[in-house]
Amino acid sequence: MSRVPTPLWHKLIAVQIYGANTGVGKTVFSTLLGAHFVKRRGPRTWDLQYIKPVSTGPADEADDSYVLKYTGAKVQTLFQFKAAVSPHLAARGAAYLPNNDAIVKKVYTKLRDHVDLILGENMGISIIETAGGVLSPGPSGRLQADLFRPLRMPVVLVGDHRLGGIASTISAAESLILRGYDIDAVICFDDNGKYENSEYLRKYFEERDIAAFELPWIPNLTDCTESEETERMAAYYFKESAENALFRVAERIIERHFERLTNVDKMASRTRDVIWHPFTQHKSIKKTEEILVFDSAYGDYFQTKHTSSSRAGHRRSGNLPLFYPAFDGSASWWTQGVGHGNPKLSLAAAYAAGRYGHVMFAGATHEPAVTLAERLLEGLNNPRLKKCFYTDDGSTAAEVGLKMALRASCKRYAWDSSSEDIGVIGLKGSYHGDTIGAMDASEPCVYNKKVDWYRGRGYWFDFPTVKMREGRWIVEPPAGMDNVFGAPKDFTTLDDVFNFEQRDTAPMYEEYITSVLDNLVKEQGRKFGALVMEPVILGAGGMLFADPLFQRTLVKVVRAYSFAKIPKKTMRFRPDIAWTGLPVLFDEVFTGLYRLGRFSSASLLQTHPDISIHAKLLTGGLLPLSVTVASQSIFDAFFGDEKADALLHGHSYTAHPIGCHVANNSLQMMDERKAGYSWQGYVRNWKEKAASSRGETVDQLTMRPKAINESTIWSMWSKNTVIELSHHTLVDHVIAIGSVLAVSLKDEANSGYTSTAAIGLRDALLNQPSFSYLNIHSRVLGNVIYFMASMTSSSSHLASVEDALLQRLNAMSGVDLSVGDWGDARKRLPQDVAVFSAHRGRET
């Protein structure tokens, strides 16, 4: 998952040569193309570079020397392995085995160096030739098409002229397209009419808007001496028929390059003309270049077009590529689970699209939907939940959940919702989506108070919040409510906050909740049909970490409370599996499916909802899909003799098989990640300090628990970094759990969501002063700036995000730090934090 820019410059064309198979003439084509540009006449002179990233076999037989012989180009093989076998086999006995990042970064470095050598009005052409076929493995065993995907260079695919070559060429092209490559051209050598592959492939690809070309047959070199071979091939490379064909191929490559440049340059202005952005006050967009242009995304990074702000501070900014990699700090609105451009998910989507397309779901079924429902019910591990209802996004899932809960309540209590106001109970700061019903389940806020149909049907409780401040976890009541919730309480670890049996505030919470309900229900006569709550963290409301004990107590009180008399005719129900009091709806769109380190965030509260909604991470960020999961007693509320008794909700793409199949694959990948070494390292990082305080068995050599307790509350973000942030002079508090890191900056105006305190930090992180710094695309919620990892983010990449954040914060507070220079800063931090800065406890 290399952090490199897409290699697109105005003055350099970098083109990658892939083969449909080994032995199809990649090196011959690379030489033909290079020779053409060397002698090409026109308004520009072309500077040629040839790169072979990975080569196997004896060095004296390497392809670079062959290309040099006939073109005189600057040539280089980056990694040479002696054995003439597949790179993954040849690399086994090597003294140095380059990892995937090292290979990709070295290719990029060579391209960047080439740009620096191009003078005046000249242009450069860099030819990067792969080894074997499109899906041949690289040194690490990773497929070449995946290995080089972070660069996403335009491709010329050399087709297979041999028997069976039509199939292998089309398969190779589809493999590249599946991974998001642009194929500039497909070429195939004319085999003198033996199999006529080139003619078929030309027609096939041109019907799909991919240019295809035929090149003259390669001379027969059987029984040739070395000098005869040189003479024949030299004549071939300068043969008029070959030159004519190469001219057309080169024109196509050049044309595509400038089309791409034009498209990139105009993208923002075209967007401003025709797009209405979500959550955007368009009056605030002063300049067109403030609209970020993403060329592509891969792993954790966007390829983002440079602006004047992002170029500022770069040396030789004129030679910067058009794009720079920016860490996707918001996980693309919380959806990313297994990284952008994940080939497994792309293949899963293609499979389901090919097998089904879309099929309607009313009164029908298909295997991906059934399998996903079974997988979700098993993962949620909630004895109440029995039925899955599919929708398209989190807001719609919430809308469906509200319909379910309100119908169940009205039916049990014999309420007439057409003539009575039935509200919901929730928490202040919660938000459940942008459809009108979901909006009404939240208190008035910046998202909904100016929506013309919004009514705000409910009551929303104040609640204590959890935060780390100056290295200590604190449960803090809202301002002025110490008399209700007690004074702020300190905890050594986050585990202690979730240790409900050892905490003593539950009776106080229970008394407060009961008194509020008595006032609302018994004195005011208000009616409520559901408890709706985001477990643990309220996302859109500002990353509010609710005291889990308060949420757990709220569920307990609501389930035991008498909201109305139950008519005698109402069916009997079991309180262990059916709802009592009110149906409890957990909105896990943000917090579920491993976002907080657990399959279900409800498990952190040690309680089971009657309705649970999920979206975002469900498909790994690839497709919109959501699910509302309900108990049998909720389902039974819609059982009846008339169609009007049914849940009459749905949309054309309900349970679309592509999304369901992708979701099955996404969840499987995250399940595997959970059992992997990296996640266990995160758990150890957060647990090792707390183990001895709880009397657990500790390894005396490593001071780590001998066994990882699954109940540990952990984060993908380094504990030492979180502690360091919590001490910072600009930071009020910080929270970290699972993949979420939220930093609340001090705001003297105390303006909450309308605060601009975090905007400067956000912009500084996006427009870092040089390539040695990490650029981060992030979102802010008032004075809160948050960062979110995907489930596949590497420890080293997250450490880079942490370093960048600390560097920018220190620069803003007057401690101007260059990379790695922590000396002066340590003096201004508490002693224990200075130690943490030297080594943040990362495990790779």
Automatic annotation (TrEMBL):
PROSITE patterns: AA_TRANSFER_CLASS_3 (PS00600). SUPFAM superfamilies: P-loop containing nucleoside triphosphate hydrolases, PLP-dependent transferases. CDD domains: DTBS. It holds the Pfam family Aminotran_3. InterPro entries: Aminotrans_3, Aminotrans_3_PPA_site, P-loop_NTPase, PyrdxlP-dep_Trfase, PyrdxlP-dep_Trfase_major. GO terms for molecular function: adenosylmethionine-8-amino-7-oxononanoate transaminase activity; dethiobiotin synthase activity; pyridoxal phosphate binding. It is found in: Mitochondrion. Keywords: Aminotransferase, Transferase. The keyword tRNA-binding does not apply. One of its GO terms (biological process) is biotin biosynthetic process. GO terms for cellular component: mitochondrion. Coiled coil: none annotated. The keyword Nucleotide-binding does not apply. This is PLP-dependent transferase.
